[in-house]
């Protein structure tokens, strides 16, 4: 685990159960071949599936290796991808231990595929668009190479586009923002509650705010600025 802590990358331990006895020293060594490596990487990807429940992850290709023999014993693999974002990884570091001792340290190139429904624009959408359900389509795409794609269309409805999106292009999480419920200059209703007593008055928003955000509001009657929590469009609550 020290290796994983130094690199900051995720490491998963996998038992190798498919090792083939070596023909030249069957009682003391095992032979590692291409199929063993493929099974180790496939098992590793299966452990990562829960991190990406919408995606179907599979190993398309891996670098060919020359079979090698290692001392027999309890074998354990440590697999570390080259990138924190699994789908950006094109190399994997594999450390093989036999009875706790490192007997092989290797790096392989691999090609991954991760298919998942991705939200794309149903039409050309200009910057500032407040997304509605009809603006979105779900298309199965390979997540490899996509930056922060949006996988849940329901959570996107009501969000505002920070930049234009062409029809068929995938949305990105960084390209969306939550529009304010209240904008600077809006007239709002201020509510203050103490026990069963509730008092309301009118105010002028001094800044914009989204739901549950605290903003400055000028009390129209007293002319004083107070801090209020945004509760709904045109409605705030005094934080006592």
From TrEMBL:
Domain SAF as annotated: residue spans = 116-177
Q: Which Pfam families match?
A: ChapFlgA (PF13144)
Q: Where is the signal peptide?
A: 1-25
Question: Which GO terms are recorded in the biological process aspect for this UniProt protein?
Answer: bacterial-type flagellum assembly
Report one GO cellular component.
Answer: periplasmic space
Q: Which UniProt keywords apply?
A: Bacterial flagellum biogenesis, Cell projection, Cilium, Flagellum, Periplasm, Signal
| SMART domains, alphabetized | SAF (SM00858)
Localization terms from the record: Periplasm
| Family assignment from sequence similarity | Belongs to the FlgA family.
Q: What does this protein do?
A: Involved in the assembly process of the P-ring formation. It may associate with FlgF on the rod constituting a structure essential for the P-ring assembly or may act as a modulator protein for the P-ring assembly.
Q: What is this protein called?
A: Flagella basal body P-ring formation protein FlgA
Q: Write down the species.
A: Syntrophotalea carbinolica (strain DSM 2380 / NBRC 103641 / GraBd1)
Q: What is the lineage of its organism?
A: Bacteria, Pseudomonadati, Thermodesulfobacteriota, Desulfuromonadia, Desulfuromonadales
